[in-house]
Structures are given as structure tokens and as C-alpha cells.
């Protein structure tokens, strides 16, 4: 990975881009360019091979059937697993998060094998869909301010011993397991249920990914005025709706 | 003409009366037109009322994610050339609102009915329509709407046994999937600018190929049917190859598409395209949409856009820069509470316009525009936004409840 360029791969926008997931790509791209990085963004449709030379891979949310199709095609392709073995960073949301785990429940009600990049297993909740604003504290070693997001999922995700919770919820459901965990991560692979999209509400997450990719400790500051205003409003909303 | 009051059973008559009384009470209490509450009361007393009210009407159903209210209005205008029409013109499009609308049209020959996407199959079963117009399907209200393809699947199952003529958009793969179970389809090339809900084949899940205006699945052979009607520039092409000029007061490509579909519907009832299109010209605004109102010395055009596909069509009809644009976004129940969809809207198209942002979720929109690299100003109220625009025309685009808020304030 060179110091002034960044290859961002958006995985399967034809299948996993239902919840404004392009937003994460756009925020990451914008903030990298504001740091004068040479950003190459590659959108990979599900009939194309996944390149293994990317620095950061983003995978979004989708409906149940496209989620199954995406898992089938990613397993067959194998490129994402090879990229992670080479040290690539992956950030995944909702359906994409479930695909990175060992297994999830597909649209046919069957157990579908995931990519095994995160030590998690997802099932489907019996109760009401988790919908609403979430406020959570991001796992301390990551050193990030509180997580604000919008959750909109039926899935429940259980963490295995080698996955760390990405955050612990103060308001909202997160992984839906009742232990207060939200998302999961392990080394360079991240998963979350948060929409919003999550990087629009938490630009520090995209900065963290950029820093990981460049292997640097700090980035030049950018104007975060509107992000901060939105964060304050949504954090207050999560607190009040509880 | 006896209309449809004659064949009603005593129970149905009572239900209609009770519904009207409830509607009157609701109106008196200042709760809107009362059509929905009236319909609810009536349907409770007689669950078959909707079917019975429709018995003596030639019914047309209209459903879609976008454009159904406008198209319902255009079809109603066109069919009035041939007889009296009853219609749920105000957009109350679930069974209670539909029942209420039909109960008010005892002398009508035609019922032109907008139906919410989720209720289409059920209403089609109840009212035995002569024609069903299907315009488009795309993502909408992410926090509670059914999945788009599931919706198409439900339509497909529900319409399989229908005797209605289905007038369907050949350019939307999901619509084609939904309609092609029916034996009697009239395909209309009505266009669909938004493509991001149909990259995956609704039949087999294969990746859709979309060269130019065509589309097909490379894996299972599901492909765009040959249309018999088409929108071509400012003309409707009919099945005989004749071109009829579209003259509308309503702006934009999407409304020309709505007019094309409406002309095809009218033709199935024997109304020729020329007559139908002339009558459509009468429509100036639909429930406030496309209306131009004077406010604080400016002319504001009110545009409703509820989802990414709707915003895309709206951007293509507004005046170019330097026309100022006011954007208003809420996320209340009727809008869907998940604002993530803002990131699917192609806001960079507004480059060069002065942009003003209002509404409950103006900060979500501010971040969206900042990331798009656009200049914009965030305002507290519509008044403040309007006052920052020079005298002249303003384009105001709002999602559902934001649109209602604006209408109330600007006196439309
Ligand atoms: Zn196919």
C-alpha cells in the first residue's frame, strides 16, 4: 500500500446497495480526497471477479434474496477472502455483515454459509424488526467517539470467541442478542447493523479505515461542521426516543 | 340512470349511510376530508361493500411506486370523454379510502382508482377491474415497505387469474415480471430512468444486461417485451404507428410517460388517443403537485419527490441554473423514518443551482450535499429560504410530509 493512494472496492452494488449504502463509499472517498489522497474507486458487480489488490472493501445491506445471491457469488469467487489474507480492510453493513460471518438464514429460511471472515453466526429474530436510532460506545481500543446510527433489521448476530463487539449500545438493539453488543470486528474486518449511512453519521469510522490502510496514526483535519451538527441531533434523538 | 344504488342490499345501503355519517363527523371535527374514516366504518358494517359498489362500474386500477396519483387523474380526465367517472382523486388509496370514493359516485360509469402497491392484488380480486395500469416499482419507505421484488412477486401471483387488461411499463423489469403472468397485457414503452432496483433478474437472480433502452437476463432469457404503445419524445406512438402530440400543463418526462400509459388505458375503453390527450391537457396540478404558488413575492413551483426514483425524475424537469432550488426533507411515519435513501439520490445534478435546505432532517441533507461537494444553505423555515432567493421562480422539491408542511405555509 503506497502512502498517497487508496484503492476502494465497493462490492456488489447491484445486490447490496438497498439502504443508501453508496453513502459510505461517498463519505470515505470524499474524506480521502480531502486529505489529498489519490483515490481509485472500483464498483464490482456480482458478475465480475473481486479484485484482490484493494485497500478497503465496502459491502452494504440488501434484501433477503440478493443477500443469498451475493453470498453464493462471493463464496464461488473467493477474491474477498484472498484480499483479507493479504491484509485488506473490509467494512460491512447489515446483510453484508451477516455474509462475512460463518452462516446466516437466507430468504428460503435455510442456513446459508458465509465467508467466515468474522467469527459470528446470524439467525433471524422472531419478534419485531429492530428499527430506530441507536447510540452506542465503540470498543475502546478503537479510540472513536460514540456511534450513532439507524438500525433496520430482523437479524440477530451472535459473536464467537475471536470476534470483538464493535460497540456496546446505550440506546437501541444492535446485534439483537440482548447482551448489548453492536457489530463485530476482528483485526481488519468490521461489521455493523448501523445505517444512516453509518459513515455519514460517524466520519471518524472512515478516517479510521483510511489510517489503517495507510498505516498512519493521524490525518490532517477536515471541516466536520455538518457531520457534528447531525451527530448531535441524532444522538439527542436516540436518547429521547428511549 | 339507476347508478349503483339500486342493486345494493339493505346492509350495504346502511353501510354506505353509516360511512357518510362518520365522514361528516370527521369533517366537522376538522380531521380532513373524512373519506378514510367513512370508508372504514362502512367496510366494517359490510366487508363486501367494495366489491358491490364496483359491480356496475367499469373499473380501472392504477398502481406504482411513483406517478399513480397523477396517472389516475389523467385517466379519469380521458375517460370523462365517454361517461361519468368516480375516482379517489385525493389519493386515499387503501381499501377504506377507495370504498369511500366509490360510495360517492352513484351515477358513474367508470371507476378510476389509485391503489397502494401493497393492496393491489386484494383490491383487484374484490372489484373485478376491466383494466389495471402498472407504471413502475422501486425502493420506497425502507423501514417498513415490503421488499420491492417481493411486491412484484405478490402482484404476479395476484394478477395471474385476472380477466383485466393489464397496461404495463415494458421498460421496468419488475413491472414486466409482475404483469407477465397475466394472459392479456398491453405493453407500453414508458421509460424508467431509475435502474437500481432491477439489476438482478426477478425471475432467476442473474445479472441483468441493460444496453441502451433494452434489457435482458443473460441467464434465463427473461427480456423486455415488444411494446405496442410508446412514449417517443413529445409524442405517443399508438399500436398503428400513428404519433399523437402530447400537450400537458404538467411538466417533465415522467408525466409524458403517465400520459402515454393513460392514452393506452383510454383506448381499451374506446377513447381515441387524440381525444384522451386533449382532455389530459386540462390537468394543471394534482393534489398540489406541480402547482405554482405566489409567496413572499416569488413564484414557487411545488414538486413532490418521495424516493430516489422520484427525485431523479424531478431533477430532470426543473429549470436549469441559476434557478434557486429549495429542498425539504422530513422522516415522519408517512415518509419512512430511515433517511439512508438520501444517499441514493443523485444530488450532484443540482450543481450550479443556489440550494436551500429545510425540513426536519435538514442536517442529514446538509451532510449529503457537503459530501457531494455542493454549495448550500441550511434554513430554519420555508420563509427564510424563500427570502434568500431573488424575486422570480423557485423550484421547491419536498418529500411527503415536508410537502404537506410547505403547502400549509404557502397557502396552496
Ligand atoms: Zn433471469
UniProtKB/TrEMBL annotation, chain A:
It catalyses: L-glutamine + H2O = L-glutamate + NH4(+); beta-D-GlcNAc-(1->4)-Mur2Ac(oyl-L-Ala-gamma-D-Glu-L-Lys-D-Ala-D-Ala)-di-trans,octa-cis-undecaprenyl diphosphate + L-glutamine + ATP + H2O = beta-D-GlcNAc-(1->4)-Mur2Ac(oyl-L-Ala-D-isoglutaminyl-L-Lys-D-Ala-D-Ala)-di-trans,octa-cis-undecaprenyl diphosphate + L-glutamate + ADP + phosphate + H(+). InterPro entries: Class_I_gatase-like (IPR029062), CobQ_GATase1 (IPR033949), GATase_3 (IPR011698), Lipid_II_synth_GatD (IPR043702). GO terms for molecular function: carbon-nitrogen ligase activity on lipid II; glutaminase activity; transferase activity. SUPFAM superfamilies: Class I glutamine amidotransferase-like. Its EC number is 6.3.5.13, 3.5.1.2. Substrate binds at residue 129. Residues 7-202 form the CobB/CobQ-like glutamine amidotransferase domain. Pathway: Cell wall biogenesis; peptidoglycan biosynthesis. The keyword Ribosomal protein does not apply. Gene3D superfamilies: 3.40.50.880. Pfam families: GATase_3. Keywords: Cell shape, Cell wall biogenesis/degradation, Glutamine amidotransferase, Hydrolase, Ligase, Peptidoglycan synthesis, Transferase. Transmembrane segments: none annotated. One of its GO terms (biological process) is regulation of cell shape. The active site is at 94 (nucleophile), 195. The lipid II isoglutaminyl synthase complex catalyzes the formation of alpha-D-isoglutamine in the cell wall lipid II stem peptide. The GatD subunit catalyzes the hydrolysis of glutamine to glutamate and ammonia. The resulting ammonia molecule is channeled to the active site of MurT. Belongs to the CobB/CobQ family. GatD subfamily. Forms a heterodimer with MurT. This is Lipid II isoglutaminyl synthase (glutamine-hydrolyzing) subunit GatD. It comes from Streptomyces klenkii.
From TrEMBL, chain B:
It is an enzyme of class 6 (ligase). GO terms for molecular function: acid-amino acid ligase activity; ATP binding; carbon-nitrogen ligase activity on lipid II; zinc ion binding. It catalyses: beta-D-GlcNAc-(1->4)-Mur2Ac(oyl-L-Ala-gamma-D-Glu-L-Lys-D-Ala-D-Ala)-di-trans,octa-cis-undecaprenyl diphosphate + ATP = beta-D-GlcNAc-(1->4)-Mur2Ac(oyl-L-Ala-gamma-D-O-P-Glu-L-Lys-D-Ala-D-Ala)-di-trans,octa-cis-undecaprenyl diphosphate + ADP; beta-D-GlcNAc-(1->4)-Mur2Ac(oyl-L-Ala-gamma-D-Glu-L-Lys-D-Ala-D-Ala)-di-trans,octa-cis-undecaprenyl diphosphate + L-glutamine + ATP + H2O = beta-D-GlcNAc-(1->4)-Mur2Ac(oyl-L-Ala-D-isoglutaminyl-L-Lys-D-Ala-D-Ala)-di-trans,octa-cis-undecaprenyl diphosphate + L-glutamate + ADP + phosphate + H(+); beta-D-GlcNAc-(1->4)-Mur2Ac(oyl-L-Ala-gamma-D-O-P-Glu-L-Lys-D-Ala-D-Ala)-di-trans,octa-cis-undecaprenyl diphosphate + NH4(+) = beta-D-GlcNAc-(1->4)-Mur2Ac(oyl-L-Ala-D-isoglutaminyl-L-Lys-D-Ala-D-Ala)-di-trans,octa-cis-undecaprenyl diphosphate + phosphate + H(+). One of its GO terms (biological process) is regulation of cell shape. InterPro entries: Lipid_II_synth_MurT (IPR043703), Mur-like_cat_sf (IPR036565), Mur_ligase_cen (IPR013221), MurT_C (IPR013564). The active site is at residue 338. Pathway: Cell wall biogenesis; peptidoglycan biosynthesis. Zn(2+) binds at residues 201, 204, 217, 220. Keywords: ATP-binding, Cell shape, Cell wall biogenesis/degradation, Ligase, Metal-binding, Nucleotide-binding, Peptidoglycan synthesis, Zinc. Residues 304-402 form the Lipid II isoglutaminyl synthase (glutamine-hydrolyzing) subunit MurT C-terminal domain. It comes from the Bacteria. Residues 65-190 form the Mur ligase central domain. The keyword Cell membrane does not apply. The lipid II isoglutaminyl synthase complex catalyzes the formation of alpha-D-isoglutamine in the cell wall lipid II stem peptide. The MurT subunit catalyzes the ATP-dependent amidation of D-glutamate residue of lipid II, converting it to an isoglutamine residue. Forms a heterodimer with GatD. Belongs to the MurCDEF family. MurT subfamily. This is Lipid II isoglutaminyl synthase (glutamine-hydrolyzing) subunit MurT. It comes from Streptomyces telluris.
Amino acid at each position: 500500500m503506497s502512502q498517497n493512494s487508496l484503492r476502494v472496492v465497493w462490492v456488489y452494488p447491484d445486490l447490496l446497495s438497498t439502504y443508501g449504502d453508496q453513502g459510505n463509499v461517498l463519505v470515505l472517498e470524499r474524506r480521502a480526497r480531502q486529505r489529498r489522497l489519490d483515490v481509485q474507486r472500483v464498483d464490482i458487480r456480482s458478475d465480475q471477479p473481486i479484485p484482490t489488490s484493494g485497500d478497503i472493501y465496502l459491502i452494504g445491506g440488501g434484501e433477503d434474496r440478493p443477500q443469498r445471491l451475493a453470498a453464493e457469488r462471493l463464496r464461488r469467487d473467493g477474491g474477498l477472502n484472498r484480499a483479507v489474507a493479504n491484509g485488506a480492510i473490509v467494512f460491512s453493513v447489515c446483510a453484508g455483515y451477516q455474509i462475512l460471518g460463518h452462516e446466516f438464514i437466507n430468504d428460503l429460511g435455510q442456513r446459508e454459509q458465509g465467508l467466515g471472515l468474522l467469527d459470528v453466526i446470524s439467525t433471524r429474530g422472531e419478534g419485531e424488526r429492530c428499527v430506530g436510532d441507536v447510540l452506542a460506545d465503540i470498543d475502546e481500543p478503537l479510540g472513536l467517539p460514540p456511534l450513532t446510527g439507524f438500525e433496520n433489521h430482523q437479524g440477530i448476530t451472535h459473536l464467537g470467541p475471536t470476534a470483538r463487539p464493535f460497540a456496546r449500545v446505550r440506546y437501541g438493539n444492535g446485534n439483537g442478542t440482548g447482551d448489548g453488543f453492536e457489530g463485530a470486528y476482528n483485526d481488519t474486518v468490521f461489521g455493523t447493523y448501523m445505517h444512516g449511512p453509518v459513515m455519514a453519521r460517524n466520519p471518524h469510522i472512515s478516517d479510521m479505515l483510511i489510517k489503517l490502510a495507510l498505516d498512519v496514526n493521524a490525518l490532517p483535519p477536515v471541516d466536520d461542521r455538518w457531520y457534528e451538527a447531525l451527530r448531535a441531533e441524532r444522538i439527542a434523538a436516540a436518547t429521547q426516543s428511549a | 340512470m339507476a347508478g349503483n344504488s339500486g342493486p345494493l342490499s339493505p346492509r350495504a345501503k346502511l353501510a354506505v349511510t353509516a360511512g357518510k355519517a362518520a365522514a361528516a363527523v370527521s369533517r366537522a371535527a376538522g380531521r380532513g376530508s373524512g373519506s378514510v374514516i367513512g370508508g372504514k366504518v362502512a367496510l366494517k358494517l359490510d366487508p363486501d361493500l367494495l366489491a358491490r359498489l364496483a359491480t356496475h362500474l367499469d373499473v380501472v386500477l392504477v398502481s406504482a411506486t411513483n406517478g399513480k396519483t397523477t396517472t389516475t387523474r389523467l385517466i379519469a380526465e380521458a375517460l370523462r370523454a365517454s361517461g361519468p367517472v368516480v375516482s379517489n382523486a385525493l389519493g386515499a388509496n387503501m381499501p377504506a379510502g377507495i370504498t369511500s370514493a366509490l360510495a360517492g359516485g352513484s351515477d358513474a360509469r367508470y371507476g378510476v382508482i389509485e391503489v397502494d402497491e401493497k393492496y393491489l392484488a386484494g383490491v383487484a380480486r374484490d372489484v373485478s377491474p376491466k383494466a389495471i395500469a402498472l407504471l413502475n416499482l422501486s425502493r420506497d419507505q425502507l423501514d417498513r415497505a415490503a421488499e420491492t421484488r417481493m411486491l412484484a412477486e405478490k402482484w404476479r401471483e395476484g394478477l395471474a387469474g385476472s380477466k383485466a387488461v393489464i397496461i404495463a411499463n415494458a421498460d421496468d423489469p419488475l413491472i414486466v415480471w409482475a404483469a407477465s403472468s397475466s394472459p392479456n397485457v398491453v405493453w407500453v414503452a414508458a421509460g424508467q430512468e431509475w435502474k437500481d432496483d432491477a439489476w438482478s433478474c426477478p425471475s432467476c437472480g442473474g445479472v441483468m444486461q441493460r444496453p441502451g433502452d433494452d434489457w435482458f437476463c443473460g441467464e434465463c432469457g427473461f427480456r423486455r417485451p415488444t411494446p405496442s404503445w410508446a412514449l417517443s419524445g413529445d409524442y405517443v406512438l399508438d399500436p398503428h404507428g400513428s404519433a399523437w402530440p402530447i400537450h400537458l400543463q404538467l411538466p417533465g418526462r415522467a408525466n409524458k410517460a403517465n400520459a402515454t400509459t393513460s392514452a393506452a388505458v383510454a383506448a381499451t375503453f374506446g377513447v381515441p388517443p387524440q381525444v384522451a390527450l386533449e382532455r389530459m391537457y386540462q390537468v394543471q396540478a394534482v393534489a398540489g403537485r406541480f402547482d405554482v404558488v405566489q409567496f413572499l413575492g416569488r413564484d414557487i413551483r411545488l414538486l413532490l419527490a418521495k424516493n430516489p426514483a422520484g427525485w431523479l425524475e424531478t431533477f430532470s424537469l426543473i429549470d436549469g441554473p441559476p434557478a434557486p432550488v429549495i429542498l425539504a426533507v422530513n422522516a415522519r411515519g408517512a415518509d419512512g423514518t430511515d433517511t439512508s435513501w438520501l444517499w441514493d439520490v443523485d444530488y450532484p445534478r443540482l450543481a450550479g443551482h443556489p440550494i436551500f435546505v429545510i425540513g426536519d432532517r435538514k442536517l442529514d441533507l446538509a451532510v449529503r450535499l457537503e459530501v457531494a461537494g455542493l454549495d448550500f444553505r441550511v434554513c430554519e423555515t420555508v420563509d427564510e429560504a424563500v427570502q434568500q432567493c431573488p424575486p422570480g421562480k423557485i423550484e421547491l422539491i419536498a418529500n411527503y410530509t415536508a410537502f404537506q408542511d410547505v403547502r400549509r405555509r404557502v397557502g396552496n
